[in-house]
């Protein structure tokens, strides 16, 4: 799994994933097992991300290092 992706959730239709492909273009994934894998990856990324406030503090610290 390389590149960016977005999980597409719909109210009245099954979810899908749009995945960017190396070299351009994209792939629409509708297989429920593969979608579950992408949703799990997204859950892990969200769980390890900084909060909005912690992100602001981190960015300010990096900017201050440039001065």
| Structure classification | alpha+beta
Spatial gap, N to C terminus? 38 Å
Share of residues in strands:
15-25%
Shape: elongated
Describe the overall structure:
The protein has 67 residues and is α+β, with helices and mostly antiparallel strands. The N and C termini lie far apart (38 Å). The model has no long low-confidence stretch (mean pLDDT 93).
Structure described in brief:
This protein has 67 residues and is an alpha+beta fold. It has helices at 32-48, 52-66; strands at 5-8, 16-20, 26-29.
Protein topology:
Blueprint: E1 5-8, E2 16-20, E3 26-29, H1 32-48, H2 52-66
Antiparallel strand pairs: 1-2, 2-3
Structure keywords:
single chain; 67 residues; alpha+beta; 3-stranded antiparallel β-sheet; 48% helix; elongated
